[in-house]
Amino acid sequence: MQVTATQAKNRFGAICAQAKIEPVFVEKDGRIDTVILSARQFSELQAANRIETLSQRKAQFEQSHSAWIAEQNQRFEAHGLWCDDIRVW
Fold this sequence. Notes:
Layout: E1 2-4, H1 5-10, H2 12-19, E2 24-28, E3 31-36, H3 39-49, H4 54-64, H5 66-79
Parallel strand pairs: 1-2
Antiparallel strand pairs: 2-3
């Protein structure tokens, strides 16, 4: 849907309702100036821009949790796994 800036101002509630169905393009001075999206569409757009590779996410996780990982590794070296003595029937 495409509307003028004046129409968008005068019918803002209806424009917001329409934006939940499809993007609304607001025209100003004869060209598209603004696009009104639903909150869901905006969230999806932001999420698509944040896609990172697995290696980037792994590196970020290891960096932010390095102290915890080191602590768990020390605990494992000292005591072994908690389930080492469990026997499968």
